[in-house]
Design goal:
The complex is a heterodimer of chains A (257) and B (325).
Chain A lengths: L6 E12 L2 E12 L3 E5 L6 H8 L7 E6 L2 E2 L5 H6 L2 E3 L12 H8 L8 H6 L2 H20 L15 H13 L5 E5 L7 H16 L3 E5 L3 H7 L2 E6 L2 E6 L1 H6 L1 H8 L3
Chain B lengths: L5 H18 L3 H26 L7 H18 L4 H24 L5 H19 L1 H4 L12 E2 L2 E2 L3 H23 L2 H11 L1 H6 L4 H27 L9 H14 L4 H18 L6 H15 L4 H19 L7
Classes of the chains: A alpha/beta (257), B mainly alpha (325).
């Protein structure tokens, strides 16, 4: 129990199979509140699988995930979002037929409390909540620098903007934990620098961030802690500097020496 | 930007509806417009389900028929008061549609289309075979007229206003729904259920909710049909009718409430207009549908939209060029 002291989000003994393929094997991890925890590892190491277990897309065969003292195991994806964990996707999952602003408004789905009577008759409460959310959504767009594209259809946005829009949409849900699945994939160097700044500013706002990422420059520059997976197992955990020196990590990335 | 706000469009709609009967040459056209309104109510609900949430139902005519028969049997055979019969019919459809939705909408993919297809066939068979209850293939007659505040609605004109008031009401409610967080949730589910769920949208419950709502709208139309025609027979509510309802939504414009309504009116009125062509009417009807889908894949709404843009673009070109300085 001592190991969990100070832990905010943690996983214990998470095991996941796909048929005969072992995606995750007894993975345990701890994330401190308001840290930027990165998960790295070679392709197929199980990074995205781990995110999918945390967010309820997959259910683990064994083990579980806890937010504070609350077990998240077995909850459907929408209930996990309700508990404050919201994510972005490696292969963009924007609502392409909606505008950028509408995408972000949809991100704020859980912040509404109005009921059927309110939307049916467009009551004062309906209008007040919609107006308040619109302000928050516009702020989220401004936060990632997309104010100018508020009325553009998400499907027409350039790739880099689409990545940022997914982050704005997730932020609109006012999450306690934000999960980013390879946010820098497909971005150029300049866009990646901007992204790094945005991610640090998210952490500054008090949000805990878990990021799966391949771009080592970005990882080393922004992470507080790094978790390294290889073949579905945790092989190292520590600060970026510690992980960089770890012989197991070097071996995993460069092959046995 | 649309040329008019939601309140203004409702007002324009109400005005057109109020004035239209005066312009009609005879009573028969009123009957056509009543049926168009009933189809319009169903198309509005079906559009919420198909155009917004992206779920296909091939059994909406069965909900329409189930409600028509339920209120017909209760009022004609069992002498229930008309409002009680209508309420019971809608309640029954609510329960039955929920029963279909819960298992089929849990699954992703086309299970709803398959489930509703099967349901439609079952209803059709029951209507034909349960002769003691439904009158079988020869139908059920003797259904009383609708009465409002104790007075029967006898004239077609009065019924026209009742039906189109219901259309306007449904249009307003559906419009408010799509402009709320629920409307956004429906459209989100249409493009990515995974992302919708990750943002906290209960996709199952939302899909079940919109399906039941759209079935209930079909049921309302069904009860209005039964107490207008005062005779129901299975042929009206078969698979072909379900397909026609889907066609109305697609032809009018998926994801546009105006479009669905326009599709319903056009596809109800068009056969009447084409009747003058006698034997060739079905050929022309098919040809028109094919041409529409070829050149207006977004439906009639897209056509109006393009026309509107053409007009405004020309106006812009005619305007004097701005001073570059």
């Amino acid at each position: 129990m001592n190991a969990k002291a100070g832990a905010f989000l943690w996983g214990e003994d998470i095991t996941l199979h796909f048929g005969g393929v072992q995606a995750l094997e007894s993975v345990s991890f701890r994330v401190k509140e308001n840290d930027l925890q990165t998960i790295i590892g070679p392709n197929g190491a199980g990074k995205t699988s781990l995110l999918n277990v945390i967010t309820g897309v997959y259910w683990a065969d064994r083990g579980g995930v806890f937010l504070r003292e609350q077990p998240l195991t077995g909850l459907p994806a929408h209930a996990i979002a309700r508990s404050g964990i919201v994510r972005t996707f490696q292969n963009l999952e924007l609502f392409s037929t909606m505008t950028a602003l509408e995408n972000v408004l949809t991100g704020g789905h859980l912040l509404f409390h109005y009921g059927m009577r309110d939307w049916c008759f467009r009551t004062h409460r309906f209008r007040a909540e919609e107006a308040a959310l619109r302000e928050k959504a516009e702020a989220a767009l401004a936060f990632v620098g997309l104010s100018a594209t508020a009325d553009t259809l998400a499907g027409n946005l350039p790739f880099g903007s689409a990545r940022l829009l997914e982050i704005a949409r997730a932020l609109a849900a006012e999450p306690r934990v934000l999960l980013l699945d390879e946010p820098a994939a497909g971005l150029n160097i300049r866009e990646t620098v901007v992204l790094g700044d945005i991610i640090r500013r998210i952490v500054d706002r008090g949000i805990t961030v878990i990021m799966v990422e391949h771009d080592m420059d970005l990882v080393m520059r922004v992470s507080d802690r790094v978790l390294v997976l290889n073949y579905g197992k945790v092989i190292a955990e520590g600060t970026p500097a510690e992980v960089q020196r770890n012989p197991d990590v070097i071996a995993a990335y460069l092959g046995e020496v | 930007m649309r040329p008019a706000g939601p309140a203004a469009t409702l007002l324009i709609g109400a005005t057109v509806i109020a004035v239209l009967p005066v312009l009609l040459p005879n009573e028969y056209y009123l009957t056509v417009l009543i049926v168009a309104g009933l189809n319009g109510i169903i198309a509005l609900g079906l559009n919420l389900l198909m155009g917004y949430a992206g779920q296909i139902s091939l059994g909406h005519a069965a909900f329409y028929g189930l409600a028509a028969y339920t209120t017909g049997i209760l009022t004609a055979t069992y002498h229930w008061p008309v409002p009680a019969g209508m309420a019971a019919a809608v309640a029954l459809v609510l329960a039955v549609s929920a029963l279909i939705a819960v298992p089929t909408l849990r699954l992703k993919g086309h299970y709803l289309a398959m489930g509703t297809l099967g349901f439609g066939l079952i209803v059709y068979i029951v209507l034909n075979e349960a002769t003691g209850l439904t009158g079988g293939p020869s139908g059920l007659g003797g259904i009383p007229r609708l009465s409002l505040a104790g007075r029967p609605v006898t004239s077609d004109l009065a019924y026209y206003y009742v039906v189109w008031a219901a259309v306007l009401l449904c249009f307003a409610v559906a419009g408010n729904l799509v402009r709320s967080r629920l409307g956004r949730a429906l459209r989100a589910i249409h493009t990515s259920e995974t992302a919708a769920a990750a943002l906290g949208i209960d996709t199952e419950r939302t899909k079940i909710g919109v399906f039941v709502l759209s079935a209930c709208m079909a049921a309302v139309a069904g009860t209005l049909y039964a107490h207008y025609v005062r005779f129901v027979s299975p042929g009206t509510f078969g698979f072909a009718a379900s397909v026609q309802l889907v066609t109305m939504v697609v032809l009018g414009g998926m994801g546009s409430l105006w479009g669905g309504l326009a599709g319903a009116v056009v596809l109800t009125v068009l056969p009447e207009v084409l009747r003058a062509l006698e034997d060739y009417d079905i050929v022309v009807y098919g040809l028109l549908l094919i041409l529409c889908m070829m050149y207006l894949p977004g439906g009639l709404v897209e056509g109006v939209d393009r026309l509107w843009r053409l007009v405004t673009a020309r106006r812009l070109r005619l305007a004097p060029p701005e001073d570059p300085a």
